[in-house]
Every structure is written in C-alpha cells, then in structure tokens.
Amino acid sequence: MYRVAKSNEHRFALAALLRPIVQSRSSDAWHETGAAPGSAGVPPAPALAGVTPHGEQSAPGLGPSCRAHGGVLEYRPIRGWEAPPMAHWRDLYRAKLTDAAAAAARVHSGDTLAIPSCGAGPWRVLEALAKRPDVRGVRICHATLWGPMYHLKPENAEKMRTLALFLTANARKAMLDGRVDFVPVNLGHVAHLFHSGALPVDVAVLHLSPPDDEGYCTFGVYVAYMRAAAEAAKVVIAEVNDQMPRTYGDTRIHVSQLDAIVEVSARLPEIPPGESTDIERRIGEHVAALVEDGATLQLGRGGMPDAVLAFLGDKRDLGVHTELYSDTVVEMVKRGVITGARKTLHPGKLIAGFLDGSRKLYEFVDNNPMVEMHRSEYVNDPAVIGQNDKLVAINSAVEVDLTGQINAESVGTRLLSGAGGQLDFALGAWRSKNGKFIIAMPSTASQHSRIVARLGDGAAVTVPRTLAQFVVTEYGVADLRGASLNQRAKTLIAIAHPDHREALERAARERSDLHI
User: Fold this and answer.
1) CA atoms of 482 and 426, how far apart (whole Å)
2) Cα-flanking dihedrals φ and ψ of residue 204, to 5°?
3) How far apart are CA 125 and CA 106, in angstroms?
4) Catalytically annotated residue among 323, 377, 409, 474
5) C-alpha closest to that of 408 among 173, 166, 178
6) pLDDT (tens digit per residue) in 492-511
7) Percent of the chain with pLDDT over 90
8) How many angstroms separate the CA atoms of 183 and 142, rounded?
9) Full-model pTM
10) 90, 149, 240, 351: which has the highest count of C-beta atoms within 10 A?
11) How does strand 410-411 pair with strand 414-415?
C-alpha cells in the first residue's frame, strides 16, 4: 500500500514541475491571486490516489490534506516548490547545507519567525540569532515551548520578542514584564492567520527528521501550524536532526522546499509523566464512567488526562483524535485498550497535531504507521472532529460560572494559557454522534472555588455556555445538556467544594437570571 502511495506522490511532484505557472521564490501564484485550482489560468490539482473524501491517507505525508466539509482537496503547495529529479536531491541537499550562524543571517530586523513548539524548538538557529549584535525587533511566534528560550531572556529583549499563541509557566513572567505579545486564537485558526497575511510569516524555522531515500524529511513530532508556516513564509530554514522521530501522516516535506539546512544531533526536551493527585484520580474515575467502549478521545498532557486513562483499563477499542497526547497513550496501546478499531474516521490510527512527552513516546512514534500526524487546521476542524462517532473531548478550566461559561485562560486579566483547541473540540463534540464535551477540574484552587457565581473581572470566555455539556469535579458530574439556567446552577453547586456551596447559593440568589 505504501509503495503505491509513494508512487502517486512522485506523480504529484511531477505534476507540480510541469504545471504552467511561473512562481516566484517569495510566494505561490495561487496564494497571490486567490484563485483556486481549476479556475481560469490555474490547472486543477492532480488527483491523489490513497486519499479518501475524508482526508485519510495511506502513506506518510501524502501532500495536502482534504477538507472534510465538502470533501474537496485543497491543494496548497509550499512556495518555491522546485523538486529536482529524485536522483539529484542529495546534490541539492549538500548545496543548501550551512551552519546555524549563516542560517540565522537570513533573518532581518523586524522579521516574524514561526517556529515549532513543545519539544521541537529549533534551538541552534535561535541561539545563533540571539548572538547577532545587529538584529532588532524580531518576533518569534510559537505556542507552548520547552527549551533554552533564548528569546525570553531579558538581555535579548531588544533583539527578539515573543509572539505567543499560547502561554505557559516559562513565559508568564516575561508576559507580566511586557516582553511577550499574546495572540488570542483557536489553534485550528492559526493557519488562516498565516495564509491570509493577517499574521504574516517572513521566516519559518522547521525542525525535521533526516531525509529518506527520495529526499523527503518529516515534521516529526510537531506538525500543527508549521506546514502552514512553511507554505506562507518567504524563507524556510530547517534544522535536520537525526534524533527527530520520523512520522507518518501529513508530515513529508522535500529538501527542495527548504532554503537553508542546518544539521544537528540533539535529543528532544522530555516532559516525563507526573504523578496524579488523589483529587485528580477521583475526577478521573468520574470521567471514565462517561467513556463508552469504542469512544474516540481528545485529551492532553498532565495529571488529569493521565488520571482519566488510568481508569479506562476495562474499556475496549478506544481511539484517539486529539491535538496532542503523551506517554500514557503508549501504555494504553500496549495494553490493547486503545486500538482505534471502531473509529469512524481514520480507523486504527492515532491522530494528533503534535506530541509531547518522554523518550519512550518519541521511540514509540518513530516510523510507526499507527501514528498519523496532521496539520491543526485539519485535526482541529470541528467538521472533521465531528466525523468521529462517540468523540469524548476531555479538557480542563480555570473556572466555570453557574450558567456554564468556561474560562480556561486567565485569572481575571492575568493570563495563564490560551484558547488552544478547546473551543474547536467543544464544537466538534456537538457535531459528533453521541459525542461528549467534558470539563474536568478540581473544585478548588488555592482554597478558592473554581465553580463561581460569575467569571472574574476581565476573565476570558473560552467556551460559551451554549456549548457546555459536562463539568466534573472530585464531587461528581454536572450534566448541563438541555438544563435551564436554574438547573445548571443547582447541579454545579452540588459538585462544588462543600465549603463553598452556601456562598454560591447566596450569590445565585443575587443574580436576576437565576431563581433557586
């Protein structure tokens, strides 16, 4: 099956070479005109064998994804596509090979760089950029990121500034100091910002696995928004790391599509699984009771999802369609709990946009055809998510008010994280046949109730109350589906910490929209 798919990818590359469009090195003609394949002056996209109307692929990285709504292939070649005959790609690779300092020299003051996140940061190029005395005002765009964080160091503040799509603990102090600019965005929409020019990308710095015998690298453990960044950028730099896992899915990129290549050999930063608390385990037990055999899971990293998975050992044929997953999923696959056998979209596959975990996870996904990595505009598209029957989306929150409004981003105006894909999966769960959207959280934080009469002043509304379904604490499950405001308030108070229930009832009586 994979030989057939590869053959068709060769045909796709050949069609790209022969199409009668003159493309500049800085942009793709289709993007400039806004014309779609098949319209006047633009040849139709070549048919891709091995791609179903739902975007399924039979081989790693079979080019562009298929948008699920309407089943129309959206062909977006990365700008500057100029694939040579396959026999000569090694010569091209050597010609583009350079060191980190020379690659960083391609960045100009005022440029915006898009880089991969989590453990896939391209640190050799960023370190070289930080050492340049002549650069100023470069914006580094990324989400959750682990590593040396050169661009966050106070001494580099004039050289580099963070453009955060999601905020984590290692960037919060810089945010408070005014050295980080935060972009509120759903993860599934980042590609649109890049392609539309609303958030222009000058340079994409990729972190790739080494090329195969045909000259194709892969995006490894982080696809997410980076395919869109490479498509939209004027310059594409790649760190090619012999320790980056080679992954299947929409992950392949040819060396001819890169402007500069820096070879590195470095282990990826690891986030080993932590221990779940007693409260998280109680919550996990409640959540697990909502998961049926054959369900497809969306979950993340950390103690809460690990606690949920720990109570799913008696389930059968669970699947995964998620932004990210971590080590615990590997154990569930090895135990035969996660098989994907009953998935209605990508059966038998673990679908994600990025991965984050320990070396055990990276070794598991390396050259594993069960694992498919896809771009976030596909993974996080509610129309795609909803094609998974029994989709169970498990997320957390900072606070939930008595009407079901969900804040997963801030304490008042103090930012903690970002929207990520929570709204994407809330919408997708509603579209899924027998789908469920679950907010799982401890009832308190620092002795303050996380179920509140109203959200804090200035707090974000990550998910509106119209999309809320289940809220779970260590005290039980509140089912908000079809519930009136009064019913919602009563059931949420019932799962709040006992020390706060009386105050919540008093506050509810003070609201004009509640009568309890």
Assistant:
1) 16
2) -105, 125
3) 11
4) 323
5) 166
6) 999 999 999 999 999 999 99
7) 78
8) 10
9) 0.84
10) 351
11) antiparallel
103 to 231, 257, 431: CA distances (angstroms): 19, 15, 45
Ramachandran region of residue 5, left (φ > 0), alpha (ψ -120 to 50) or beta? alpha
Q: How far apart are CA 239 and CA 19, in angstroms?
A: 30
pLDDT digits (tens, 9 = 90+) for 219-266: 999 999 999 999 999 999 999 999 999 999 999 999 999 999 999 999
Instruction: Please state, in angstroms and as integers, the Cα–Cα distance from residue 19 to each residue in 35, 90, 187, following that order.
Output: 15, 24, 33
Residue 98, beta-bridge partner list: 262
Interhelix angle for 303-310 vs 278-288, to 10°? Answer: 50
pLDDT digits (tens, 9 = 90+) for 451-464: 999 999 999 999 99
CB neighbours (10 Å) of residue 444?
17
Structure token digits, residue 474: 């260590």
Task: Give, for 378, the enclosing helix (H) or strand (E).
Answer: helix 376-379
Contact 256, 97 (CB under 8 A): no
From start to end of 235-370, where are the E strands? 235-241, 248-249, 252-254, 260-264, 296-298, 319-325, 350-355
**Which residue type does 260 have?**
A
Separation of alpha carbons 89 and 176, rounded Å: 47
Residue 36 has pLDDT above 80, yes or no: no
Alpha carbons 70 and 170: distance in angstroms, whole number: 41
- DSSP state at residue 15: H
Rg (CA), the chain: 23
Q: Helix, strand or coil for residue 236?
A: strand
d(CA 395, CA 290): 14
Buried-exposed string 216-245: b where 16+ CB fall within 10 A, e elsewhere = bbbbbbbbbbbbbbbbbbbbbbbbbbeebb
Please state, in angstroms and rounded to a whole number, the distance separating the CA atoms of residues 77 and 16: 8
Q: What is the pLDDT of residue 274?
A: 78
Told to judge if 510 belongs to the known catalytic residues of this protein, a careful annotator would answer no
User: What size, in residues, is the chain?
Assistant: 516
* Average per-residue pLDDT for the chain: 86
Question: Residue by residue, what is the 3-state secondary structure of 456-508?
Answer: CCCCCCCECHHHCCEEEECCEEEECCCCCHHHHHHHHHHCCCHHHHHHHHHHH
